[in-house]
Design goal:
The protein is of the alpha+beta class and 869 residues long. Among the domains are: 115 residues; 144 residues, no CATH class. It is 17% helix and 51% strand. The strands form two sheets. The chain has a 40-stranded antiparallel beta sheet that branches. It has a three-stranded antiparallel beta sheet with strand order 15-18-19, with no helix packed on it. Helix 8 packs antiparallel against helix 9. The longest helix has 26 residues. The radius of gyration is 51 Å and the shape is rod-shaped.
Length: 869
């Protein structure tokens, strides 16, 4: 109670004395601290803390409420090239010292303010000549308690490559300026960058960049924390690339506009340089989200380990946003859906180990119209690579799909030049059920096994120029369609190389026919090739039926084959049991030619051989030659019950058509040839029966048989305007001879003028006064109409003259000497009547083309086969 009373009594006095003392103290500050001394001490304080001496122009000192030094045109330059202090220039600078430290002669700064400052820092790459100046403009800089080992609070606003303030920095830090150790640093700061244009950043960088930014901004917000006693710096924040559009250098199509965001949590060791990217670091991109974690060393520029994962990666958009993938992903490759990615990297810049795994199970994959994998079908891609000095890539990779396992080895790929070498090998995998992946084969059931070996050497950037070699082994492949078609027992191998390709021992069956296929393709100097197709017994009707079913099952687009017409035409000639025996065809082809140097087979009891050339140049043309040897008409028309004609056919022909091989090909077809038919008969007309309808020749009616027998028919013909024309057709039989001229259309219509000569015995039955051994004729008649049922008419212009001479016994005008045919008409006689293949009749272009591109190639092919066996 007494103490309280004393305090109340003396308190006013004490406060008055204190106020007088404080007023006296502050009023005497100009005397205690002259402005020159304050200026000198502030310069000393700045120099002690930074190692650099500031310069300025105008100085003003205010003492109330505390001493403050006001400077204009303030400048602080680095003490030397190795200094870590930035260059600072400010229109105004304000320094407020700590009053008591100032009175003690040990000045320290309580508050520093820079207004409208420019701060430049030269960033140098250790061990190189690289240097880049980082410049901040329009800086507002506030620094409180600028003393060693004391919490220093700061706030900075600045412009960096922007017309408005876009950099903000604030926080606190504690540092020993004299004996700096990273462990002793204590800091907590917030850094943000707003809307920094990437194009301006690239221009500021100046050094050539692999990409050209067309649009986009960069923004970030980061929190930095450093605790005492440890060298670790905690960093947490996010960054955004917005509206990014760029082009690759050299110029390429621009990327699709996209936004990219990263949220990161990391620790940086300031002493060792270790950078730890914590779990929880995420990336949001237009092509999917990513998670990342890892360990780096920024001092050694090494990667201890980095793991990047994505469970919803959209690879189909990669080429749109990540332009280098345009060269990696083929144009016709279609991707959709989500993929899973695991990507791992570790090592030094000199040698990085890169492992990746992509799970495409949930993705749909298609290549043009040939391959399609739906979502849910497992497909895994793996790689274990090593990157040497940033440009040399080597290692192994693999792919697993259904029963197929692919393993590859990248011997070496120079990423700078594109030069490299690679091999790929698969197991012998079953293709059972693979029809679901090939749209063209979805109407088939596939089985069998395939094995593939591939090697690539050359420039991967110009893959078409690289040396690519493939070997595909086929083991009992079978394709059975829902329509009943069947291709089976497909065996053999196919080689593809840069200089040539080869079909080796390919064997397969279609329906009831078995085939063998060998071939050779030369790529240099001019592309040309030869395929040899053989079949011991080719069932024609069955093969056509199978091909129709295959075509219907394939459901190919484009012009459709009129199978009904094809089957009708083939059925009209071949019986179900008829086959082409010992069939062999050599098919040669070059850049603008398709040639058949040799085609031969046995059919209808005889043999067919031929050659052909199809020229596809600007003025296309076709040339065909063939020879028919002893083909039986009876077997040819066995399906029609009673055939139109019987006998054995011998013929040769040379055909030519100018223009493309299209619907008008037959309209343009021209040609010449010769034919002979031995020991046969026509079943569709009866010449003697037709003559018997003429009153003056009525006795011939007794010889009516409904058909016309002959021992020999021969003559030459021409083909033009879809008609076969002849002017010297000769028919010989025991009872008469016929000289004919006319044509038969491709539609089967006859239009012939006949001159018929009766044998002496038949002539005397018409007129007993006919001289001995004299033939009666020519009797002029017309044979017209469809070949299946033609009509026989009198020739109205000539028949009257003949009949008048016959009635008047004027035999000198209507008879001539009879030369009887040989008693036995042999097949060889008939064959000898037909000219064999004549090189003089064959067009020179065909002969030369077959020689150059067919036979020579065949000789090379066979000689190589012989030497390798």
């Amino acid at each position: 109670m007494i103490k309280t009373q004393l305090f109340k009594r003396y308190a006013p006095l004490v406060l008055t004395i204190a106020a007088i003392f404080i007023a006296a103290f502050f009023s005497s500050l100009p005397l205690l601290i002259p402005s020159e001394s304050l200026q000198r001490m502030m310069s000393q304080a700045v120099q002690e803390q930074t190692g650099s001496t500031p310069t300025f122009k105008e100085v003003r000192v205010s003492f109330l409420p505390t001493p403050v030094l006001h400077l204009t045109h303030f400048s602080l330059e680095p003490a030397g090239p190795d200094s870590n202090i930035p260059s600072i220039k400010a229109d105004k600078a304000t320094f407020r010292p700590v009053l008591f430290s100032l009175l003690m002669g040990k000045p320290s700064l309580a508050h520093v303010v820079l207004s409208n400052a420019t701060i430049q820092y030269v960033w140098r790459e250790p061990g190189s000549d690289f240097a880049k100046t980082v410049s901040f403009e329009h800086v507002s800089f506030d620094l409180w308690n600028f003393r060693s080992n004391k919490p220093i609070r700061f706030r900075v606003k600045a412009k960096f490559l922007s017309d408005s303030d876009n950099v903000n920095l604030s926080g606190t830090f504690t540092i020993d300026f004299k004996n700096f150790r990273p462990k002793d640093l204590i800091a907590k700061a917030q850094v943000s960058i707003d809307a920094l244009e990437l194009s301006k950043l690239a221009s500021w960088w100046r050094s050539p960049l692999p990409i050209d930014f067309k649009k986009g901004t960069f923004s970030s917000s980061t929190q930095i924390i450093k605790r005492a006693g440890i060298s670790q710096l905690d960093v947490k924040g996010s960054a955004v690339l917005k509206d990014l559009i760029y082009e690759m250098s050299p110029k390429s199509a621009p990327s699709v506009e996209g936004d990219y965001q990263v949220k990161y949590q990391a620790q940086i060791d300031l002493e060792s340089g270790a950078l730890i990217l914590n779990e929880g670091t995420t990336f949001a991109t237009p092509f999917g989200p990513f998670e990342a974690e890892g360990r780096f060393n920024v001092f050694k520029t090494s990667v201890e380990e980095v793991l990047v994962k994505s469970n919803a990666l959209h690879l189909e958009t990669f080429p749109q946003y990540i332009l280098p993938f345009e060269k990696i992903i083929p144009v016709n490759l279609g991707l959709s859906g989500e993929s899973q990615l695991d990507f791992f990297v570790k090592g030094q810049p000199e040698l990085l180990v890169v492992n990746s795994r992509i799970d495409l199970t949930k993705a749909s994959l298609a290549y043009s119209k040939y391959f399609s994998k739906s979502s849910g079908v497992p497909l895994f891609l793996k790689s274990d690579m090593k990157l040497v000095i940033g440009r040399g890539l080597r290692g192994d990779f693999s792919a697993d799909f259904e029963q197929a396992s692919l393993k590859g080895s990248l011997v070496g790929l120079d990423l700078a030049t594109g030069q490299g070498e690679m091999t790929i090998l698969t197991n012998k995998f079953s293709i059972k059920g693979w029809e679901q992946y090939f749209p063209l084969l979805r109407q088939f059931e596939l089985s069998g096994a395939v094995k593939i070996l591939t090697s690539v050497k050359g420039n991967f950037n110009r893959f078409k120029e690289a040396r690519v070699m493939n070997n595909i082994s086929l083991d009992h492949l079978e394709a059975r369609s829902k329509t009943g078609a069947r291709i089976y027992d497909v065996n053999g191998s196919i080689d593809f190389g840069p200089l040539d390709s080869e079909l080796k021992g390919v064997r397969f069956g279609v329906g009831h026919s078995q085939f063998s296929l060998d071939g050779k393709m030369f790529w240099e100097p001019n592309r040309k090739g030869l395929v040899i197709l053989r079949s011991e017994q080719l069932k024609v009707l069955d093969l056509v039926s199978e091909l129709r079913k295959i075509d219907e099952a394939l459901q190919l687009s484009g012009k459709k084959v009129d199978w009904r017409s094809v089957e009708a035409a083939v059925t009209g000639v071949f019986s179900p049991d008829e086959s082409l025996d010992d069939f062999e065809s050599h098919i040669a082809f070059s850049e603008n030619h398709l040639m058949i140097p040799d085609l031969y087979f046995n059919v209808f009891g005889g043999r067919v051989s031929g050659q052909a050339m199809f020229d596809f140049k600007s003025a296309p043309s076709s040339v065909i030659t063939f020879e028919l040897d002893r083909l039986s008409f009876a077997r040819m028309y066995a399906t029609q019950g009673q055939p139109v004609i019987e006998g054995n056919l011998f013929a040769t022909a040379q055909l030519k058509s100018d223009g493309p091989f299209d619907a008008g090909w037959l309209d343009r077809l021209k040609g010449t040839g010769s034919l002979a038919v031995a020991n046969g008969e026509f079943h569709s007309f009866d010449l003697l029966g037709g003559l018997g309808k003429i009153a003056e020749l009525a006795p011939l009616g007794s010889f009516k048989s409904g058909k016309t027998r002959f021992s020999d028919v021969r003559g030459d013909f021409e083909i033009e305007s879809k008609k076969i024309k002849t002017g010297n057709l000769l028919l010989v039989s025991d009872d008469f001879q016929v000289e004919a001229a006319g044509d038969i259309g491709f539609d089967g219509n006859l239009n012939f003028r006949l001159s018929l000569y009766l044998a002496p015995a038949l002539g005397q039955s018409v007129n007993s006064n006919l001289p001995q051994n004299a033939r009666l004729g020519p009797i002029p008649i017309l044979l017209t109409g469809p070949i299946s049922n033609p009509s026989i008419h009198q020739d109205p212009m000539l028949i009257q003259t003949f009949l008048e001479s016959l009635v008047r016994d004027q035999f000198s005008k209507i008879t001539s000497r009879w030369f009887a045919p040989s008693s036995v008409a042999t097949q060889e006689n008939a064959k000898n009547q037909v000219p064999q293949k004549s090189t003089t009749a064959q067009p020179a272009s065909l002969e030369q083309a077959l020689l150059d591109s067919g036979f020579n190639l065949l000789e090379q092919f066979l000689s190589q086969k012989k030497s390798s066996s």
